Amino acid sequence: MQKQSAHEVSAPAPALPLPLLIGAAIALLGSLVIAVPGDPEWWKVIVLGVVQGITEWLPISSTGHLLIVSDLLGYSGSIGGTFEIFIQFGTVLSVMAFYAGDLLAQGRALLGRGTHDEALMARRLWIGVFIAALPAALIGIVFRDFIKAVLFETPQVIAGALIVGGVIFLIIERFPLRTPRTHDPGRVTPWQALGVGIAQVFALIPGMSRSGSSIVGGLLAGLDRRTATAFSFYLSIPVLGAATFVDLIGSLDQVQAGDWGRLLLGTVVAMIVGYAAIGWLLRYVARHTFVAFGIYRILIGLLILWLAAVGML
């Protein structure tokens, strides 16, 4: 396994291999060909895909931004929130592409084709990811209908979650935690992973942010900024992948034939934009605190409350 050191975590995004670049271009062209004819809202799908690609990795809540932007655009293809959840799969593909080299190396190590230390690090990482994924997965399945029917339809809930999360970031930066003791995702302990998983449960509330919650959980558990961010990215693979699959299965009766084109287009756009966003955030956290994100969350939360008060949401 390619050891994910703090230095490597902050490295620029790897250049997208030519085959993947060509594949992404073909996927984008194909999705446009499928989605655009007969769908006057195709441009809104692209806007929402861009929003998803950017905000999934930044600790500012992709779901919250998607729901608000969708409302402001008057987008009619939400399918009861399924569109906003489904296009998260695009960002799963983006993180898998970003970490493709590491994922392949980890797979080889787990199959006995690496050193003992590489295999041990890979096992620790994915055991930690599994532990961290469980709390939100279990609660999300049990309360899926309530979350979609109640929380997804209330701008005030999204605004409140954004503001609360922003305040938490500012508090963490104002009162620094004890010196981090874990500097590599492959060294996250089961107890630290469980702490991240418990924190991620709060991300079931639209506006709280999956990446923000898991990063804060990592910081509280003793991970440094870059390790908490990288672990959050790895954690997104099973969490977002499972969330997409479960929601799609539960909403198949609502998905019409014409919806598949927009789902595909939004997913492809989110994948392409998300790849660039991952590299940017890793570079950012290597040199900056989360104060800017905290301030942004508070301001956008207040803006949403105002828009709701004047009847624009």
Which parts are unreliable, with pLDDT below 50 for 5 consecutive residues or more? 1-13
Largest sheet: number of strands, sense, barrel closure: none
Distance between the termini: 48 Å
Proportion of residues in helical segments: over 70%
Dominant shape:
globular
Strand content: under 5%
Tell me the Rg in angstroms: 19 Å
Number of domains: 1
What structural class do the secondary elements suggest?
mainly alpha
Which secondary structure elements does this structure contain, and how are they paired or packed?
Layout (H helix, E strand, L loop, with lengths): L5 H4 L8 H18 L6 H14 L6 H12 L8 H5 L1 H11 L1 H11 L5 H27 L1 H6 L5 H20 L15 H12 L8 H11 L4 H27 L7 H27 L5 H19 L4
Task: Provide a descriptive summary of the structure in words.
72% of the residues lie in helices and 0% in strands. Helix 7 packs across helix 8, helix 8 packs across helix 13 and helix 10 packs antiparallel against helix 15. It has one domain. It has 313 residues and is an all-alpha fold.
Brief description of this entry?
The chain has helices at residues 6-9, 18-35, 42-55, 62-73, 82-86, 88-98, 100-110, 116-142, 144-149, 155-174, 190-201, 210-220, 225-251, 259-285, 291-309.
Primary descriptors:
about 325 residues; globular; about 70% helix; disordered N terminus
